[in-house]
């Protein structure tokens, strides 16, 4: 009986030890793409979880990149980028975080040790913030949070409860509806310019950009499966990429943007040229739309080459690059510039990998 008991105890210990080491260490970038994507491993690099339900619960020594209808972070990461319809943050971020979505909750279990940018319709902050936080949202609630720096809110309905501590200043639009408990702000109250958009317009703009981003991912996914050779050409054509190469692609895109409409207009003036002008017009708009996908892929590919594992996962690389462009599109002041540059460079890339190759043996 004692031997059986000892054997039982040994088996239990082995089982418990095996359960404790379920998560393994990975010494390179790791990406998960699917309906339910979760990264549980300890990553000595960066990680990307992309899907309908996307989650990072392990430790990441780099950037945790999460995109999904439902995005969740319960792990430990140096940097965090999370975007989704519903976003929940409960983990530890040692440096900076960017969070975008419709409904965002930064839970009291979360600890964001440096600067944070949040953009959403309904935003709830209950965590520790180690430095400054900027919040773009219609309805913003700060409840039980401890914020060591300044709080900048660009919204219409703002509530700060009595359990919150803001060590720095609190700034908000002068026409916003604001309820702040006494004594929670140690610094100054600063009123900024009035909010230009109403709640519905803000939410519509934010969700419009998000669904546009998801549409680009869908089109890219189809292209990467149906015409993967195009993106292999991008890798070969731009394996060595510097300022001059980027300027060359930008110039080609600019010339295309100017010259093609002129040709379409001239053809349209001639009755015999109207059918051809309509075909060119359709191709013109298709190329304009696809330009963001190719620019995003190139961006993701070059960053992947520089910072991550050299094995190229085409789908994850493209989504990663498009995700970065999406993040820039949410930042006021630079979104238009980034969009214009990416469109022109993307057109230049399409010229190099498709138009220039027409009729060649490659």
Features:
362 residues; alpha/beta; 3 domains; 17-stranded parallel sheet; two-stranded parallel sheet
Description of the molecule:
The strands form two sheets. The protein has a 17-stranded parallel β-sheet that branches. The protein has a two-stranded parallel ribbon with strand order 1-3. It is built from seven helices and 19 strands. Residues 1-5 and 7-21 have low confidence and may be disordered. It folds into three domains: 21-114; 131-196, no CATH class; 199-355, no CATH class. With 362 residues, the protein is an alpha/beta fold. α2 (199-226) packs across α3 (228-237), α3 packs across α7 and α5 (274-307) crosses α6 (314-329). The protein is globular and about 75 Å long. The chain is 43% helix and 31% strand. It starts with a helix and ends in a 7-residue tail after the last helix.
